[in-house]
């Protein structure tokens, strides 16, 4: 009979703890931990901790993927610490692509500001692909942890803003994980069913060795 009471008390404690602080601006002088950064002392907090101007600047798309991601995560925007959200800007030149990737710690929603973007995700249960051509004003959700992608299929540069429900969502690019490492090419061949020549070519592109 005590378990329900203890459960309710724990909930009340968590709610009361959350209401003690109005915010918890990240203190970058201390290490990051599983629960995020420690709080900066209130006397050292300024309005600039709650403002970030980086998303107003176009990213450099003169790269291999012809795209740029400008993050407004907690490491760039300390006021997000503990608030459960973040944002990013996607600039995609013509034929630009944000390769298949995941966010372990967050779901993502994309809003197309300009251009035409094909976006989609792959379910983990049945490997079903959900993808659609998005136009200016469209939004799409990518559930937490699922592989997803975006690429520009229009004839003008595309711009999108994404929001994620974590101040530090993390990002894992599949291609980078496979080919930017020092795993021997023969091993990569075995686990990907690609031939060695293809593996070495991709390792050269992504900066891997082995």
TrEMBL record:
<feature type="disulfide bond">
    <location>
        <begin position="24"/>
        <end position="39"/>
    </location>
</feature>
<comment type="similarity">
    <text>Belongs to the germin family.</text>
</comment>
<protein>
    <recommendedName>
        <fullName>Germin-like protein</fullName>
    </recommendedName>
</protein>
<keyword id="KW-0464">Manganese</keyword>
<feature type="signal peptide">
    <location>
        <begin position="1"/>
        <end position="18"/>
    </location>
</feature>
<dbReference type="InterPro" id="IPR014710">
    <property type="entry name" value="RmlC-like_jellyroll"/>
</dbReference>
<keyword id="KW-0732">Signal</keyword>
<feature type="binding site">
    <location>
        <position position="108"/>
    </location>
    <ligand>
        <name>oxalate</name>
    </ligand>
</feature>
<keyword id="KW-1015">Disulfide bond</keyword>
<keyword id="KW-0964">Secreted</keyword>
<feature type="domain" description="Cupin type-1">
    <location>
        <begin position="53"/>
        <end position="200"/>
    </location>
</feature>
<dbReference type="InterPro" id="IPR011051">
    <property type="entry name" value="RmlC_Cupin_sf"/>
</dbReference>
<dbReference type="GO" id="GO:0048046">
    <property type="term" value="C:apoplast"/>
</dbReference>
<feature type="binding site">
    <location>
        <position position="148"/>
    </location>
    <ligand>
        <name>Mn(2+)</name>
    </ligand>
</feature>
<feature type="binding site">
    <location>
        <position position="101"/>
    </location>
    <ligand>
        <name>Mn(2+)</name>
    </ligand>
</feature>
<feature type="binding site">
    <location>
        <position position="103"/>
    </location>
    <ligand>
        <name>Mn(2+)</name>
    </ligand>
</feature>
<keyword id="KW-0479">Metal-binding</keyword>
<feature type="binding site">
    <location>
        <position position="103"/>
    </location>
    <ligand>
        <name>oxalate</name>
    </ligand>
</feature>
<dbReference type="InterPro" id="IPR006045">
    <property type="entry name" value="Cupin_1"/>
</dbReference>
<keyword id="KW-0052">Apoplast</keyword>
<feature type="binding site">
    <location>
        <position position="108"/>
    </location>
    <ligand>
        <name>Mn(2+)</name>
    </ligand>
</feature>
<dbReference type="GO" id="GO:0030145">
    <property type="term" value="F:manganese ion binding"/>
</dbReference>
<dbReference type="Pfam" id="PF00190">
    <property type="entry name" value="Cupin_1"/>
</dbReference>
<dbReference type="InterPro" id="IPR001929">
    <property type="entry name" value="Germin"/>
</dbReference>
């Amino acid at each position: 009979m005590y378990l329900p009471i203890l459960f309710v008390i724990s909930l009340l404690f968590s709610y009361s703890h959350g209401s003690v602080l109005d915010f918890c601006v990240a203190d970058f002088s201390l290490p990051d931990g599983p629960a995020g950064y420690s709080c900066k002392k209130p006397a050292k907090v300024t309005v600039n901790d709650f403002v970030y101007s980086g998303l107003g600047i176009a990213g450099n798309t003169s790269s291999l993927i012809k795209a740029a991601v400008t993050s407004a995560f907690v490491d760039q925007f300390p006021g997000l610490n503990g608030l459960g959200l973040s944002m990013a800007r996607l600039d995609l030149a013509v034929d630009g692509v944000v390769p298949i990737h995941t966010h372990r710690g967050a779901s993502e929603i994309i809003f197309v500001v300009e251009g035409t973007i094909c976006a989609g995700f792959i379910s983990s249960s049945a490997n079903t692909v959900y993808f659609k051509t998005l136009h200016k004003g469209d939004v799409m959700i990518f559930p937490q942890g699922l592989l997803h992608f975006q690429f520009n299929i229009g004839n003008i540069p595309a711009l999108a803003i994404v929001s994620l429900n974590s101040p530090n969502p993390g990002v894992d690019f599949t291609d980078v994980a496979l080919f930017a490492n020092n795993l021997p090419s023969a091993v990569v061949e075995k686990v990907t069913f690609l031939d060695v020549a293809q593996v070495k070519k991709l390792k050269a592109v992504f900066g891997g060795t082995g």
